[in-house]
């Protein structure tokens, strides 16, 4: 559904993008009122279609009303294409010489979920100097991320992440082709992208940055709100300089080799599969804004610290698959987290007999998983009133 829109401010772009693509397909304005979609833009779109777009699902035709062209947004004043959503719509990889790179007023470009079949990212993106949102997630590209990405200084949101389907943990062949930031390295890429508020690099090899990786963000990206770096081969500490990122509310670092130390303002912290050992550091209690904490599948030992009770906003807590020990009284801190909805403590070394009454303060609790411990569970007779929302208990 193509649809002309006119935006007032760049901060609304993402919102407008989704609204525009979801709204009435008919052109709301009389054709003669505006220069409409320029001919050179139509030509570039139709050429792109011929070059790499699946013609069975993208039905742009020269003779159909381009108001109905799906995934295209243009500026009604200038007639230039400013947004293109081609997520899952490509038939072939894009080459350096593609007509796409002629759409040089593009601000929003979504190419997510197209299979680049482990080829490198084509060059040409530096011609799109107005890009604010670039999404190449799950495109299975490989090799060095092009240097020219560091020229896209208007970027607000950059998504180069891939999930396990592109970089399976144990497949060494794929591992060799994994996308990476070596030259330029992480710092080289981001140092001029000072407008970024969202950065997703999951699956990109960032190991060349060394253990000072967490120090490069505060200086370059002061406005960052979301940072996602799972499976990036990071090592060393999560440096407390990250706490200078005062707007950061989401940090994802799972599947790395890290030590924990995180900024105070975080609301969501995912540090599972980070090979962290030792006991939970007392500094965790400083993260009083946390609503979601996932420390599963590490090598934590020791008991659950009493200071956990300070995380009063927690609604999601996953400590499963560690080697935590301790018996029933040690749940004292958890039982004070009255907002908890999901509590996963499975596959640890907790012992003793747990009575559900002990979780009596957790009236919002929906899921409780205590399985695979040295612990027995006594349901008792008071559960239904004490835990009114409990749906699942193991
Ligand atoms: C459309 O173009 C006009 C004129 O250049 C500009 O003022 C306006 O901000 C543009 N709108 C968008 C959504 O880019
Ligand atoms: C882009 O298209 C995909 C697939 O059609 C859709 O799931 C997604 O919501 C779209 N993105 C935006 C920002 O509209
Ligand atoms: C673009 O590059 C590809 C691969 O290098 C080539 O096959 C194709 O002919 C080129 N297209 C144009 C229009 O030059
Ligand atoms: C990128 O696009 C995919 C598919 O449309 C979507 O799931 C994902 O959330 C997008 N990333 C960002 C940062 O918006
Ligand atoms: C990209 O940035 C580099 C360094 O800032 C500069 O030398 C180069 O000319 C820029 N390239 C383009 C195409 O703007
Ligand atoms: C954690 O692991 C490192 C290296 O694997 C080791 O040197 C250190 O002693 C361990 N610490 C604890 C508390 O087990
Ligand atoms: C975190 O809490 C500890 C006490 O457990 C305190 O010594 C430390 O200064 C705090 N750190 C920050 C960054 O607030
Ligand atoms: C946790 O809260 C207790 C009081 O409830 C306070 O004495 C303690 O200093 C807090 N710990 C941290 C690390 O903030
Ligand atoms: C915690 O994170 C791990 C790894 O990303 C994930 O497998 C697990 O499902 C998460 N826990 C929950 C309860 O979602
Ligand atoms: C759990 O505790 C038992 C007995 O205290 C001990 O033998 C075992 O090694 C512990 N397992 C783990 C994974 O810590
Ligand atoms: C639970 O059952 C025990 C005896 O089996 C009884 O003494 C106790 O009052 C009951 N508690 C509630 C809340 O019904």
From TrEMBL:
The keyword Glycoprotein applies. It is found in: Membrane. Its main location: membrane. Residues 1-22 form the signal peptide. Residues 39-72 form the Leucine-rich repeat-containing N-terminal plant-type domain. One of its GO terms (cellular component) is membrane. PANTHER family: DISEASE RESISTANCE LIKE PROTEIN, LEUCINE-RICH REPEAT RECEPTOR PROTEIN KINASE EMS1-LIKE-RELATED. This is Leucine-rich repeat-containing N-terminal plant-type domain-containing protein.
């Amino acid at each position: 559904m193509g649809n002309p829109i006119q935006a007032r401010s760049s901060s609304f772009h993402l919102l407008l993008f989704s609204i525009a693509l979801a709204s009435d397909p008919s052109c709301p304005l009389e054709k003669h009122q505006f220069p409409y979609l320029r001919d050179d833009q139509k030509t570039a779109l139709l050429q792109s279609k011929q070059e790499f777009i699946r013609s069975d699902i993208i039905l742009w035709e020269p003779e159909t009303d381009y108001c109905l062209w799906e995934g295209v947004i243009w500026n009604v004043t200038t007639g230039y294409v400013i947004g293109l959503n081609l997520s899952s719509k490509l038939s072939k990889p894009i080459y350096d010489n593609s007509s796409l790179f002629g759409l040089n007023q593009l601000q929003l470009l979504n190419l997510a979920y197209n299979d680049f079949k482990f080829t490198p990212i084509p060059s040409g993106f530096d011609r799109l100097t107005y890009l604010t949102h670039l999404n190449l997630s799950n495109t299975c590209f490989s090799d060095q991320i092009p240097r020219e990405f560091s020229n896209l200084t208007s970027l607000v949101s950059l998504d180069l992440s891939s999930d396990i389907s592109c970089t399976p943990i144990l497949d060494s062949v794929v591992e060799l082709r994994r996308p990476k930031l070596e030259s330029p390295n992480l710092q080289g890429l981001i140092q001029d992208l000072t407008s970024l508020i969202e950065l997703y690099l999951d699956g990109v090899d960032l190991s060349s940055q060394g253990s000072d990786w967490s120090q490069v963000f505060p200086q370059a990206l002061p406005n960052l709100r979301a940072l996602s770096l799972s499976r990036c081969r990071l090592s060393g500490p999560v440096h407390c300089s990250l706490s200078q990122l005062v707007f950061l509310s989401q940090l994802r670092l799972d599947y790395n080799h890290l030590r924990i130390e995180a900024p105070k303002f975080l609301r969501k912290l995912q540090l599972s599969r980070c090979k962290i050992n030792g006991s939970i550091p007392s500094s965790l209690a400083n993260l009083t804004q946390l609503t979601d904490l996932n420390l599963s599948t590490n090598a934590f030992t020791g008991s659950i610290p009493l200071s956990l009770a300070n995380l009063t906003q927690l609604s999601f807590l996953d400590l499963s698959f560690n080697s935590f020990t301790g018996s029933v009284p040690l749940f004292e801190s958890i039982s004070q987290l009255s907002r908890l909805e999901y509590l996963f403590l499975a596959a640890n070394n907790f012992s003793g007999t747990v009575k559900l009454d002990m979780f009596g303060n957790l009236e919002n609790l929906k899921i409780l998983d205590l399985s695979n411990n040295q612990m027995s569970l006594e349901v008792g007779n008071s559960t239904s009133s004490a835990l009114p929302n409990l749906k699942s208990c193991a």
